Amino acid sequence: MDEFDSFVRSRSAALLRSAYLLTGDQHLAEDLVQSALARTHRAWGRLRDRGHVEAYTRKTMYHLQVSWWRRQRPEAMPGELPEPGGGVDHADQAAVRMVLRAALLKLSAKQRAVLVLRYFEDCTETEAADLLGVSVGTVKSQTFKALAKLRQIYRLEGAVR
After folding, report:
1. Looking at the chain, which terminus has fewer C-beta neighbours within 10 angstroms, N or C?
2. Assign residue 8 a region: left if phi > 0, alpha if psi is -120 to 50, beta otherwise?
3. Is residue 112 classed exposed, middle or buried when 0-12, 13-18 and 19+ CB atoms within 10 A define those classes?
4. Among the residues of 24-135, which ranges form H helices?
5. Is 107 left (phi over 0), alpha (psi -120 to 50) or beta?
6. What's the mean pLDDT when you consider all of the chain?
7. What pLDDT score was predicted for residue 73?
8. Are the C-beta atoms of residues 7 and 63 closer than 8 Å to each other?
9. Of 10-24, 49-63, 95-109, where does mean pLDDT reach its minimum?
10. Is the pTM of this model over 0.70?
């Protein structure tokens, strides 16, 4: 299990950042990562190719998030975006994170997940559809709606400034 411990130590921050983008909440993101890592730990003996452990864990996170959506509408609670490991935070990076967080929180959970998978995780439409358990058409329509809403937010906030 030293291998699993090493994986958790090295990849938890990246998993937490992705989970935060999916959930929009620090506490829900931590719960999501913890649940996904618990499932990964249980499957550890069955995972033959250790090079794909992170992909397995991320897919587990996406599936868990979808099942949580189906059970209940997630609460929106304030939280902080996890800092990337180590480095000094620059003002520009902080501003971008704040704008990104605010914009993502204005989207529905499904729209947010589609954008995270497509543009932050670089998944194809087909991969995103498979991970979320929806059709490619749903991924396309949710992406279109999410981008349109982000454009509207940008126009409104740009007009205020």
Report:
1. C
2. alpha
3. buried
4. 26-43, 53-71, 91-105, 109-115, 125-132
5. beta
6. 81
7. 52
8. no
9. 95-109
10. no
